[in-house]
Amino acid sequence: TNKPLHLGHLRNNFLGDAVSRILEASGYTVQRVNIVNDRGIHICKSMIAYDLFGQNETPASAQIKGDHLVGNYYVKFDQAYKKQIAELVQQGMDEETAKKEAPLMVKAQELLNKWEQGNQEVIDLWKKMNTWVYKGFDETYGKIGISFNKIYYESDTYLLGKDIVEEGLEKKVFFKEEDGSVWADLSDEGLDKKLVLRSDGTSVYMTQDLGTADMRYNDFNFDKCVYVVGNEQDYHFNVLFKILKRLNRPYADGLYHLSYGMVDLPSGKMKSREGTVVDADDLIAEMILTAQSQTEELGKIEGFTTQQASELYHILGIGALKYFLLKVDPKKRMLFNPEESVQFQGNTAPFIQYTHARIAAIVRKADELGISYQNKKDFETVVTLEPAEQTVIGILSEFPRKLAMAANTYSPSVIAQYVYDLAKEYNRFYTEVPIFNAPDPQTLSFRIAFSAVVAKMIRVNMDLLGIQVPDRM
RNA sequence: GGUCUCGUAGCUCAACUGGAUAGAGCAACUGCCUUCUAAGCAGUAGGUUACAGGUUCGAGUCCUGUCGGGAUCACCA
Q1: Which of A89, A180, A350, A441 could disulfide-pair with A199, CB 3.0 to 4.6 Å?
Q2: Is this complex scored with an ipTM above 0.90?
C-alpha cells in the first residue's frame, strides 16, 4: 500500500497478533504472515505526484516518515486529479468520461503499463518509494511490537493463479464466456457468478488469492489458515473458500476468515481520501503522551530513571490502545471517540496493569521481610477463605475453559474480558482483606502466595493479548 | 432491489453459545487515603434487550415479519 497505517490497520494487526498468541498457548505452531499490496494504480498515483511536485524530496530531507511522505503525494495526486475533472466537466464533458480521460489518470495508467513491462526508470522510482514506505511501516510495527515470520509482496504474487484457472476449466469448476473471460458459477449455493480471469487473460483479485492459497499451503503445509481481513470482504472469502473446496484442495476445510468489523468515528466511517482517518503514528504518540501526563500528575515515578519512565509510558500507552481495540468482539464494528476512548480508568489496560503492579509491590515487600510463601507447606493448614478470595479462586479456575473458548472462536475479547474480571475481583480482595496484618503467619503466607498467583495469571493473560505489565507504576 | 450483518442503560461494551433477579466501565451523585500503590474500593440512580408475532418448561440469544444502521453485489484490490 502507499498510505500510512491507520486505526483500522491497528485493529487488524492487534487481532492477528493476539489470535496467534492464543493459538500458540493452545498448542498450535503459528506462522504469522503478512501480505503487502505494493503494486497497482494507487501506487502509480503517488509516483506521478512525486514526479510532478517532488523535487527529489526524501524522508530524510523532509524530516518525515517514509510512509507519510508517500501518502502525502497520494493526496496531492487526488487533489490535482479532482481539479482536472472539474475543469473537464466545466468544458462540457460528463463526469464519468472526465474521470477516465483526465490527463493525470491517463498518465497513471501509462505508468502502470510501463511498470508491468518492466521499464527500468519506472521500476527504480517504484523501488525507491516502496523502500521508504516499508521503512516507515517497520518503525510503526516496531513500536507496537508486531512482527511476522514471512512477508509476501503482491508484486511477486500478482501473476499467480492462472494455472489454477486452467485447472478449474478442466475440472468444470469454471466456465469460459465467449469473450474469453472465465467465471465461477456458484448460483446453486445462493451466490452469484464470479469473475476469475479477465477477457484479456489478465488476473483479478480472485485469481491472485487462489494462487496465494496454494502457495501458502506449499510453504507451510498448514492445518488451519486464518485470514484476518475486514468484514467488507466477507463475500470475497466466502466465494474463495467455496471455489477451493470445489477444486478439492486438501486444505480447504482448514481455511477461516476472521472477519472483523470496521472502526468508526463519531463522524462516521473512516475514509482515507477525505482525510477522516485516525493516523496510527499520531494515535500511538498521543497515547504515550497521555500515559506520561497521567503518571506525572499522580506522582508515581519516584526513583525511576528517565529510561525507566519512558519505558513505562510506552507500556501503558500501547497497552491502553491494544486493550481498547481487543476487548470488543472482533466481529462487531466499534466506535472510536478520540475525546472519550483514551482512558486509563475502568475497563482498560492500565487498570489491569495497575493491579499487577500493586501485587508486585506486595511480593517485593514479602521478599524483603523474608516471608516464606513459595511452598504449599507454608500455608497448607489454612482452610478458611474470605468471600473475596473464594470468588477470585473461582475465576482462576475458569482460565482453561476461557482460553479454549478464545481459541475456538478466534476471539481475544474473551481473554480481555476475563483478565479484567480477575483484576476487578482481586482489587476487592485487596481493599477488604489485610495481607501483612493477617491474623497468623500461615494466613499471611497464603495471601501472599494467592496474590502472586493472581499476578502471574494477569501477566499470562495480558501476554496473550500482546500487552506488557509493569512491576511498578 | 438481492445477499450478509448489526440494533442491550445517556455513551462505549458484556452476558460462558437456550437457563434463575440482563452485568461492567464512562458520564452524574454519595462515601472511603495516619494501615500493603485511591490509575483503587463501596454505594445511589439509570433497562418493556428497536418493534410485532411465533417455537420452547424457559428467549437478549432460535424462526417469521416490520422499522432503522452498516457492508457487499466491479473485467478495483
Answers
A1: A180
A2: yes
Q: Whole-angstrom Cα distance, residue A405 to residue A415?
A: 9
The residue behind cell 481495540 is: A325
Rounded distance, CA A207 to CA A162, Å?
7
C-alpha cell at A401: 475453559
Half-sphere exposure of A351 toward its Cβ, with a 13 Å CA cutoff? 20
Quote the Cα angle for A179-A181-A182, to 5°. 140
Cell representation of residue A330: 472482533
A376 and A422 Cβ atoms separated by less than 8 Å: no
Residue A202 amino acid letter: T
This model's pTM is above 0.90: yes
- Cell of residue A46, nine digits: 503517488
Give, in Å, how far the C1' of B19 lies from the CA of A250. 40
Q: Cβ distance A50 to A75 under 8 Å?
A: no
* A413 nearest nt, CA–C1': B14
Nearest nt to the CA of A336 via C1' is B12
Q: What is the DSSP letter of A232?
A: G
Nucleotides of B under 7 A from a protein CB: 3-6, 11-17, 24-27, 35-42, 69-77
- Cβ A254 vs Cβ A223: under 8 Å: yes
**How many residues are listed for chain A in this entry?**
473
User: Which nucleotide, over all strands, has the C1' atom closest to the CA of A414?
Assistant: B16
Question: Stated in angstroms, how far is A239 CA from B5 C1'?
Answer: 17
A249-276 pLDDT, tens digit each: 999 999 999 999 999 888 777 766 666 7
**Nearest nucleotide to A158 by CA–C1' distance?**
B77
Backbone phi, then psi, for A127, in 5-degree steps?
-65, -40
